[in-house]
Amino acid sequence: MSPAPSLSRDLAPDLSLGLAALRDGITAGDIAERVDFAPGVSLIADAPLGVGGTWRSPAGRLLELDISMTGRGSWIALHLALELPDLADTAFIGFGCTGVGPAQQIIRPCLRSGLGDGGFVDCFLDRHILTRPDAVAHVDALHVPTCRPLPEIAPWRELLLFLPPEPLRWHLHDLRIFAA
Amino acid sequence: MTLTIAIPVHDDEPYLLRLLGRLARLGCADQLVVVDDGSHAPLDHAALCAAAALPADRLTLLRHDTAQGPGAARNAALAHVDGDHLLYLDADDLPTRELPPLLADLAGQTFDFCIFRHHDTRSEIERRWGPEPLDGRLWRAAGTDIGALTPVGPAAAAALMQTANYPWNKIYRTGFLRDHGIGCSDLAVHEDIELHWRSFLSADRILASDRICLIHFVDAEGDRLTNRLGPERLEVFVTLDRVAEDIAAREADPLPFALFTLGLIGWIHGHLLPELRRPFATRARDWLNRRVDPALYPAIDAARPEIRAHIDQLLDPAAAG
């Protein structure tokens, strides 16, 4: 008897450990240009934004972000490292998340793949996350065979959540990444 | 932090067993105190321990031979609480998976009580997950609708104390209730108004959590106490008087209680048996004349523009049913 087909697989041990650590523990700190919340889970911001503020990871949840800014800049993103070098057998890469924010703001998810020359290529998912006061699930996926810029083999990959380059209060209750 | 969960029960064993099974799965109760409030078939200690997956010494079963009401049952339970913290539940409640992480967040914190959000099954008509709309607005007004654990300052408390007076959405420090002599009234319904209000009035440190830790089931067709719409509802003014006197003695801001009471009077009047509306309106008018300073009405109108016209219409002697 053959084993039951797997519907998803563990994409990245580091990422899973990092998210699990955030879910299981209670930690807090200050927001800076780079914050490593847990292995494979970081916030990186464009320096001119002059980011500040605080973050907290409550029990059973991922991150409560309260980000202030003193300047103008171009980008700020939550980086989630993936160990997913070869996509030959993968049809979909996606994620589900839930969170809340007091105001409606847009977060743009993107799969970033490293290139051999040291650069990278970004594939944005079709749907943006709209923060809102009530927790609503957001699920989206990339169809790998028809996502032309997506290299089948890459030395590294990340799921990026591009945050708006403006003050933000966003509580990311949970996030899970899947591939099938 | 050790948590005792206290549950009053009257002829409600199937729901109680469902609740105990849920608590066993969540693994968050260090002690259970069940008060069998005059059930026709007395509850069995061993069966409850099995359902809760707890050793016998961690489940205390008390019994009132005649039903005295959930308030008296909760007060009886308090005397037997071993945990340093206490959560009252009703037998038909169901805690969610958010309760254990809330307890983890609370461990090591100093607080008199922590109020958390709940899901009211009436919200499901509109496919919403969370409390009824008015409570939702009050949580937003308090600024506590977002955040796993938020300290509640005086302004936020003034909003949260106007939410429905549920006993099962607060984790209490046991010593806080005992030191302040805070308990429920011996009424069949509205027995929890004093618990709710005196907690807010007496607490030095309140926390709030946006976690939805409990599902509250409302079945308008059932025969539960919540659905009693008879003369027992007229007794509400006894407990409202006690709270009003407490607020006056403390020289606390009377506006939140006035807003709460006006909303409650409107709710009772709207649900009461038709033949009781006239005597209820008479008592309500008397109570409002005695207890609500007319100087408060501009502030009431500003906070809840709809409420006074509604109450005036309900209590108009010419319109009384």
Automatic annotation (TrEMBL), chain A:
It comes from the Bacteria. This is Uncharacterized protein.
UniProtKB/TrEMBL annotation, chain B:
Coiled coil: none annotated. It comes from Sedimentitalea todarodis. InterPro entries: Glyco_trans_2-like, Glycosyltransf_2, Nucleotide-diphossugar_trans. Pfam families: Glycos_transf_2. This is Glycosyltransferase family 2 protein. Residues 4-131 form the Glycosyltransferase 2-like domain. It comes from the Bacteria.
